[in-house]
Structure formats: C-alpha cells, structure tokens
Amino acid sequence: MSLSYTELANSVVTKMPVYEPGKPIEYVAREFGLDPNDIVKMASNENPFGASPKALAAVRAMLDGVNMYPDGASIELRDRLAKLWDLKPSQFFVGNGSNEALMILGQTFLNPDCEVIYGEQAFVVYKIATILAGAKSVPVPMPNFQTDLKAMRAAVTDKTRMIFITNPNNPQGTVSDPDELLAFAESLPEHVILVIDEAYAEFTDKTPDLRPLIAQGRKIVVTRTFSKLYGLAGFRIGYLFGSEEVVGLMNRVRQPFNSNLPAQVAALAALDDREFVETTLRGNAEGVKTLYAGFEALGLKYVPTHTNFMLVEIEDAGKVFVELEKHGVIVRPMKGYGMPNHLRVTVGTPEQNARLLTALKTILNK
Ligand SMILES: Cc1ncc(COP(=O)(O)O)c(C=O)c1O
Fold this sequence. Notes:
Number of strands: 12
Shape: globular
Bound molecules: pyridoxal-5'-phosphate
CATH class of the largest domain: Alpha Beta
Radius of gyration: 21 Å
CATH architecture of the largest domain: 3-Layer(aba) Sandwich
Order of helices and strands: HHEHHEHEHEHEHEHEEHHHEHEEEH
Largest sheet: 7 strands, mixed
CATH superfamily of the largest domain: Type I PLP-dependent aspartate aminotransferase-like (Major domain)
CATH topology of the largest domain: Aspartate Aminotransferase, domain 2
Structural class: alpha/beta
Strand order of the largest sheet: 2-8-7-6-5-3-4
Oligomer: single chain
C-alpha cells in the first residue's frame, strides 16, 4: 500500500499546529524516576487550591444518575448564568471547556475566504480554529507582551471575519487598557466578529464590561471558563455570551450533548461557592507576591501579571525547564511561542511556590 492516511486527510489538518499541553505529572515521574506524589505541576494554570468543595459535593450526590444523558441545552446552568450576568439565558452557549466554544465559533463563522486576526503569541487554539476552517491567519506582533490594538485595527480588511483577543493574555499575563479595548470594539466594521477570551478575567478588575456594546448589537462575544477560578479543569466546562443569534447558530454546530452531566452540576454549584472563590483569589494574590519577591531575590526579570500565572525571564529557559523537571517541578517552556528565554509559571500554593524557588536557586547556583 503506498497511499498514506496523511495523503487522504483533509488538507488543512496537516497544517494544524499540535496543541502542546503542560506535561502530565505521571510522564515526568516515569521519565526521571520520581515519586508522582512528590511532583508539583505549575504548567497549565490550573487551580492549585483544588476544586470548589460545593461542586465536588454536588457531583458526588448525582453520580448515580449518570445513566441518563445530560440536558443538552444546559437549561439550569444557562438560567443561573443569565442571573449572574443580567442577560437572557438564550445569550449563553455552554461548551466542553471554553476551548470548545472557540472551536465552534470557527466552525460556525469561518470559511476559506476569511481572514482571522490574533496576537502572534496568543493562545494557540485561535490558530487551530482558523486553520481548521481553511481561513487565513493574520498574526499581529505583541510588543512588550501586550495586545497591539492599533496594529490589529490596521490589519482589518474587507475579508476579516474574526478577531481573537485574550484579556488577560495567556501566556503573558497582561491586560488591555479597558477604555482602549472598548474604543477598539466600537471601531470595528460590522462584518467583523470580536471574540474576547476572558478565561482569566476573574483574577483582575481591569477587564471592561462588554455587555452594553453587545446590547447595542455590536458583534462581540465573550468566553469564560470554569477551569481556572473554580478549579473544574478536569470536568471540561466553559461558556460564551453574546447575541441570541450567535448562540443559535453555534447550537446548530455543537454535538447534542456537548457538555456532560457532572460538569453541568459542578458548574452550577461552583457559581454559589463564594468561599472557595475568595480562598483562590486570596491565595493567588499572596502567591504572586511570593513569586515576585523570589524572582527578584534570584535576580530574574518577570512580566507583572493580572492572572494566576506569570512569565519569568531565564537565559536558556529550555535547559532550566528540564532541570526543574528533575527537581520535580513542572513549568511551561515558551520556545514554541517564540520566547526561548522565558518560562511560564502557574502561581501555586505556598508550598509549591517555595519548591519552585528553592529548585531555581539550586539550578541557577544563586
Ligand atoms: C486563554 C485561554 N483560553 C481558553 C482556554 C481554554 O480553557 P477551557 O477549555 O479549560 O475552558 C485556556 C486554557 O488554558 C486559555 O488559557
């Protein structure tokens, strides 16, 4: 047989970048002969304080019901989200992680004639959604680790269908100026859909309220996730809000039961878990201060963060990444994002932060 599956594949598939997740603990344990219980993962911006206890209790109580399909329309969750945001339930799309919402936006609105603008070093899923649709990527440089709104506006053409902006940015941890972002949103022509990915927005008060512009009919959608603040990354649940029309179109594209039953139950309960939210925000703010002080003591530069992770500048970061693994600390190398001298570090618990800083001190001979 000389014909390969690759030759038979949809031609866009071979052009797609492969999403590289943070290395799982079990891989690193096997690779370096370490005890998995002694490894700390600070690589995927997960919640180091665990999951919302209320969410876990709610899921435990419903497990006997998993012989049934979930509510494909996520009615209860969308009702609750509508109250939270003071919008209509029909303005919410619930997805298998916000990642799914981003992919379905691409499937719903992009085709090979379209151009899609996003930051050159932005979250890689925008590129994947673009390429999968056969659309043209228009990456815009991100000077000083920031989204360059002026350059993005200048890149808009008659063919631009979508712009992805992460706010706060991942992997940079920076935010756009709220007024500038609103002015940017208002300046866009009506054939452009502006996607604001707010996966980390709960960690800052610097993101603007986009609902008034959505109410005016501006083509803006916002994505949010339960993976970070609420600690539900393993359940895979996130959402998008925008106009009823956008949501209606996206609902045609999604699987009938795209968001699973335990995830919906967990998300509903997590929204009412103020205590866990406050524990996480407080712990994160303390962790950020600890890491700033620790990096400064080691003479390392970092990018000030508005999120639960940060970029730290280290010469030969790829080597340091491997050395950290040997010390049982998993972080994220940034070479794939064109930043070979940076590591991205998720803010951890006090113990995890101390492990990272101690390991770095040893590795860097400081
Ligand atoms: C910027 C950004 N957007 C979206 C996501 C997807 O999150 P999830 O699919 O877990 O909701 C992530 C996950 O790391 C992210 O960093």
